[in-house]
């Protein structure tokens, strides 16, 4: 057991920034046999045999639990090449090769000059990038250089190999028999309460996200300490655990759960984006490449592939993403790759990203209450295409979840894919989820998920049916637009939401908008408050007036009241350049107001 000392309890002048300290018993009294005790370590050198002994201990004690993968197809994916450290050369990889992966910060270090023969094979590089998650997942162990700042940092603390580490531990005596050791630890979410020197940038880097997430067994070098992480245990150099904890205590989420079959839900995708999209890239245009492996595996859980970071099955829903914190536009360092950061995708912006996952309305009842709260909905009003260039023909986006909803409305139902239709029992409350629609009298079940009831059948994929992500800088649709006035100062301010009220010409309340840019120096007001805001339609939606849905404007005093559902249109604030519209904000306009104000249909291309 440890006590944590906060920065206000002690001066940290020796460190780069204030740290917290973990305080452990240094010696275990006889009456506390089952408690953890601290280890007084060599301040300069790591035990060279420790990492190898942990690997052997995991292999022998956990008996394959930490190395198994639920999908044989994915388990066969390997890198095309490996480094033979004995022969000091690159060799072709085979399926039966066991290998160790390395995760480190590349940084801005000078490297050898590249000759023409050593240039990347662009096509092969794209294939390897898409496999990156599984390359790490299939590694026997991943070495994580969490204390490094660049590719030449190395792993400090190995006598005769690298520079010494600088670990600061102090010993305290509580009484004559009880000694305690204090070890400086991190208070960051990335490495909570792990030994640190206080200045690691490893956990803030974008490429690191999937490398850490998918590694099944990790040997983590923080710069000043070493730890082991696997599905069954976490072992730390500075703490000795009782044997009872060797195979039961781990807060590490195994990567295998991402590969297991499950009912599609956007919560997992959103949780990944919350972390990933606030990370830093040496080359911001690498943002989608760094997410490619995650996209590949999530495709089976989200009923289809990804288009520039957005799951296509839910396209109309996720296109209406909202910033959860202040946005900054990603700008490519290589101007020839500028179109790899489209404004309509979250990848074009650095921010916490949110979207109405409450709109996943296909679940009527499920295993968890949050899966079927359904206080919000999205209605498709447009059909979208992907384009490699503004004047190319384009490929239709198959938003399969919305397709299934439309098929059911037309009376189509496929009985041959494991689905069954059931009548809602008489006397029970009918399904009246949708506003202004007929009460539903039937629900559906699938043989794979007997504990779920669905409002309509949806596409369910096998775990091995992965779909590679596609990149497209442009999307198009036939849309309509309108202009509205905007209050100069926001109605709601805060770290997560900056909402401005939109009004018709006569000053009547029309809706709300979250601008992505165009703010003044304070960041709390528009630069040009008298300028009309141009909005284009992308979808329709509705939310509960009485239950929390994430739609804040229902609490505004001028918001038009309805009986139970507030109906609106999702719109984008745009700016134009050479006939291409670029996203500058997201908003919602009251349905009645939008239908009265919107103009003629036109061809919209978003870049």
Tell me what the structure shows.
Strands 28-29-30-33-32-31 form a six-stranded antiparallel β-barrel. It has a five-stranded mixed β-sheet with strand order 6-7-10-11-12, with helices on both faces. It has a four-stranded antiparallel β-sheet with strand order 1-2-9-8, with no helix packed on it. The chain has eleven helices and 34 strands. The chain is globular and about 80 Å long. The protein is α+β, with helices and mostly antiparallel strands and about 600 residues long. It folds into two domains: about 1-110 and about 120-260, no CATH class; about 300-605, no CATH class. Strand 10 (about 220) and strand 11 form a beta hairpin. The longest helix is centred in the first third of the chain and has 13 residues, at about 50-60. This is Heterokaryon incompatibility domain-containing protein.
Keywords summarizing the entry:
single chain, 2 domains, HET, Heterokaryon incompatibility domain-containing protein, 607 residues
Strand content: 25-35%
Give the total of beta strands: 34
Helix content: 10-25%
**What is the strand arrangement across the widest sheet?**
28-29-30-33-32-31
């Amino acid at each position: 057991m440890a006590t944590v000392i906060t920065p206000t309890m002690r001066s940290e002048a020796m460190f780069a920034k204030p740290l917290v300290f973990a305080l452990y018993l240094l010696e275990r009294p006889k009456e506390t046999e089952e408690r953890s005790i601290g280890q007084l370590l060599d301040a300069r050198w790591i035990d060279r045999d420790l990492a190898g002994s942990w690997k052997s201990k995991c292999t022998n004690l956990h008996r394959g639990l930490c190395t198994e993968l639920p999908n044989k197809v994915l388990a066969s994916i390997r890198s095309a090449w490996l480094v033979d450290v004995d022969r000091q050369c690159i060799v072709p990889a085979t399926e039966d090769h066991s290998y160790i992966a390395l995760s480190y910060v590349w940084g801005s270090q000078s490297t050898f000059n590249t000759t023409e023969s050593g240039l990347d094979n662009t096509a092969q590089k794209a294939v390897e990038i898409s496999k990156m998650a599984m390359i790490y997942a299939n590694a026997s162990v991943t070495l994580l250089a969490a204390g490094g700042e660049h590719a030449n940092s190395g792993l400090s603390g190995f006598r005769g190999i690298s520079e010494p580490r600088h670990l600061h531990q102090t010993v305290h005596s509580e009484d004559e028999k009880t000694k305690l050791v204090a070890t400086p630890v991190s208070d960051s979410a990335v490495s909570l309460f792990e030994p640190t020197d206080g200045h690691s940038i490893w956990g803030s880097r974008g490429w690191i996200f999937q490398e850490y997430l998918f590694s099944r067994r990790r040997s983590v070098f923080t710069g000043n300490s070493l730890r082991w992480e696997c599905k069954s245990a976490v072992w730390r150099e500075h703490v000795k655990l009782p044997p009872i904890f060797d195979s039961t205590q781990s807060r590490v989420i195994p990567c295998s759960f991402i590969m297991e079959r499950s009912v599609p839900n956007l919560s997992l995708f959103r949780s990944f984006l919350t972390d990933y999209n606030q990370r830093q890239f040496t080359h911001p245009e690498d943002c989608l490449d760094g997410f490619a492996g995650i996209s590949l595996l999530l495709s089976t859980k989200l009923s289809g592939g990804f288009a520039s970071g957005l799951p296509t099955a839910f396209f109309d829903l996720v296109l209406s993403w909202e910033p959860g914190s202040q946005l900054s536009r990603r700008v490519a360092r290589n101007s020839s790759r500028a179109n790899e950061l489209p404004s309509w995708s979250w990848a074009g912006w650095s921010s916490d990203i949110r979207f109405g996952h409450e709109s996943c309305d296909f679940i009527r009842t499920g295993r968890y209450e949050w899966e079927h709260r359904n206080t919000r909905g999205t209605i498709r009003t447009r059909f979208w295409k992907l384009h490699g260039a503004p004047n190319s023909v384009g490929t239709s986006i198959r938003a399969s979840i919305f397709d299934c909803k439309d098929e059911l409305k037309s009376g189509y139902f496929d009985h041959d894919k494991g689905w069954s239709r059931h009548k809602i029992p008489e006397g029970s409350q009918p399904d009246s989820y949708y506003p202004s629609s007929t009460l539903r009298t039937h629900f559906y079940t699938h043989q794979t998920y007997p504990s779920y009831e669905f409002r309509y059948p949806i596409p369910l994929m096998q775990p091995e049916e992965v779909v590679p992500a596609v990149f497209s800088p442009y999307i198009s649709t036939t849309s309509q637009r309108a202009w509205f006035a905007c209050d100069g100062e926001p109605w709601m301010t805060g770290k997560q939401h900056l909402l401005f009220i939109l009004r018709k010409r006569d000053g009547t309340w029309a809706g709300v908008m979250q601008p992505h840019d165009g703010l003044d120096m304070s960041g709390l007001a528009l630069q040009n408050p008298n300028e009309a805001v141009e909005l284009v339609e992308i979808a329709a939606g509705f939310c509960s007036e009485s239950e929390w849905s994430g739609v804040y404007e229902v609490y505004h005093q001028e918001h038009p009241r309805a009986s139970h559902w507030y109906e609106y249109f999702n719109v984008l604030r745009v700016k134009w350049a050479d006939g291409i519209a670029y996203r500058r904000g997201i908003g919602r306009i009251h349905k009645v107001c939008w239908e009265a104000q919107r103009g003629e249909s036109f061809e919209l291309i978003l870049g």
